[in-house]
Amino acid sequence: MTLAPTGEPTAKTEQIDGATRLYVIIGDPISAVRSPQFFNALFAEHGINAVLVALHVDADGLDAAWAGLKAMRNLAGVVVTMPHKVRAAALVDALGPAGQIAGAINAARREPDGRWLGDMFDGRGFVDGLRAQGHEIAGRKVHLLGLGGAGTAIAVALAEGGVSGLVLQDVDAARRDRLVDRIATGFPNLAVTPGTAPDPGVDAAINATPLGMKVNDPLPFDPATLPRSTLVVDIITKPEMTPLLERAAATGHRVHAGGHMHRGQALCVARFFGFC
Amino acid sequence: MTLAPTGEPTAKTEQIDGATRLYVIIGDPISAVRSPQFFNALFAEHGINAVLVALHVDADGLDAAWAGLKAMRNLAGVVVTMPHKVRAAALVDALGPAGQIAGAINAARREPDGRWLGDMFDGRGFVDGLRAQGHEIAGRKVHLLGLGGAGTAIAVALAEGGVSGLVLQDVDAARRDRLVDRIATGFPNLAVTPGTAPDPGVDAAINATPLGMKVNDPLPFDPATLPRSTLVVDIITKPEMTPLLERAAATGHRVHAGGHMHRGQALCVARFFGFC
To answer: Which residue of the set B70, B85, B214, B238 is catalytic?
Structure first.
């Protein structure tokens, strides 16, 4: 499977018919998501009669939309994006392991018995994306800033991926400390600690906050305080080079942009849906 | 606009993106519907970033599915097919004129103020389909058998289209008599009467019952009892040549198959959605 096949085979929208299986991505905002392009290229390449379309659903509409999706019997899977990842975890019938720990999901599928299984691939996709770029995290010490849905999933995947140390930071100290406790319980051999800024001893510093999406956002942290050997990572995809990554590149750090995570994540979800 | 463009332009499913407007057809069963092919060819031809997909929703799931569709803000229109046409009329915020009389809808669209407007184009599509084949109904006497959702809509459209006489037949005499009364009230100059079988004086005899969809169904009426000048019409599309039409063709009658209605109907709905 490739992310964006450049040649044939392609599928035409006129080939969509009454027997086409349906997948959706649900979020707000929705217009910039890339899942339709990714999955529809995948379906075309594999000759699968399925299509993925984007649904614009706001937080107030999620419960009704979800109940509606469950009533659509040819609806086979849902990709869940902001702001629905936490609430959607309460709407499925069962949670996979990463979804349970994260308390959030980014994908759900209809099982053969009709129940809905949700799981969270943001974290695994993130780690897969790092590895695909040659950044192995096993045995490394990592600082993670931002413990919302994506950040929580990344924390779990970093722990699963064998980091030797994990420092968690969030503007909400109570949320941070709860996650420290959960990770410590789930991974008793891992040194997981709360932090307030990346210290110079970490091998990688990751921004999982939204800081950098808006033009006048402050930097989530200043890479100039870190040694050049520290990998600076952002999960924001728009812009691809965030102010944090620009600054880090200017100070001679290696950088890793958000697109790699999204590609890794999409591949994980495609596997979860039973493709590739 | 053409029903099935044979050349370019076409749209590829990979062109579906987060900004694609969504249309659906909702029904049970759903796999044989032709609306996806029709509308997606139309969207491709007009360069419209929209897609229509089929949703398999059973009668028990309709209310939940409909509430879900309303929560999907990029969902612009719904084509309604069996068995949902009557119930859906109760789920929209407002009804067009034919929808009001029929008490059923086959399409609904989201208005600029967010309200949902439903209307019934089965009847108009049927009359358009007859006219497209050269069968003018104005001034003619017509027998109509089967007064469910489609039959009711056809009765109204025949009255609107200026038939000189309309005989209505249904296995449910109370339903039949109620519709006779409603048509008589709405069209005081039209001779509308109940009937139990097509009499030899009618210019056209129409089957709007499901009889003929299953292999061992009895004929809805026997065309051999009618003069050869009587047009014999079926609204069933699968099979295209129903046993009724086969029998009528064998006895020398002109026949008119269900596909013409569906094409007329799709064009009416496309206009209702704001295209062509």
So the answer is: B85
The answer to whether A22 and A76 are in contact (CB under 8 A) is yes
The answer to whether residue B51 is domain-embedded is yes
**Which pTM was predicted?**
0.83
Mean pLDDT for the stretch of residues A6-19: 80
Mean pLDDT of the region A116-134: 95
> Are residues B137 and B235 located together in one domain of the fold?
yes
For residue A38, the chain B residue with the least C-alpha distance is B14
Confidence at residue B2, expressed as pLDDT on a 0 to 100 scale: 41
Over residues A172-185, the pLDDT tens digits come to 999 999 999 999 99
What value does the mean pLDDT take over residues A261-266? 91
Query: What pLDDT does A8 receive?
Result: 57
Question: Which residue of the set A70, A85, A141, A214 is catalytic?
Answer: A85
We report the CATH number of the domain holding residue A212 as: 3.40.50.720
Q: What is the ipTM of this complex?
A: 0.81
Which range of residues forms the domain containing residue A175?
123-261
Question: How far apart (Å, rounded) are the C-alpha atoms in residues B124 and B172?
Answer: 24
Whether B213 and B254 share a structural domain: yes
User: Does B96 map to a domain?
Assistant: yes
Residue of A nearest to B15 (CA): A37
Considering only CB atoms, B56 lies closest to which of A13, A15, A72, namely A72
Count of A-B CB contacts under 8 Å? 165
pLDDT for the residue numbered A193: 98
Contacts of A13 in chain B (CB under 8 A): 10-13, 15-16, 40, 43-44, 51
Q: Within a domain: residue B21? A: yes
Q: Give me the CATH number covering residue B58.
A: 3.40.50.10860
Q: Model confidence over B179-229: pLDDT tens digits?
A: 999 999 989 999 999 999 999 999 999 999 999 999 899 999 999 999 999
Q: Band of the pLDDT at B12, cuts 50, 70, 90?
A: confident
Mean pLDDT of the residues in chain A = 93
Nearest neighbour of A74 by CB, restricted to B43, B56, B66: B56
State whether A71 and B53 contact (CB < 8 Å): no
Catalytic: A12? no
Q: Do B73 and A61 touch (CB under 8 A)?
A: yes
Which position has the token pair 């407002």? B94
**A129 and A198 together in one domain:** yes
Start-to-end C-alpha separation, chain A: 7
pLDDT in tens, B43-88: 999 999 999 999 999 999 999 999 999 999 999 999 999 899 999 9
B interface test, pick of A6, A14, A31 with most B CB neighbours within 10 Å: A14
**CB contact set of A165 (below 8 Å; sequence gap of 6+):** A140, A141, A142, A190, A191, A192, A193, A202
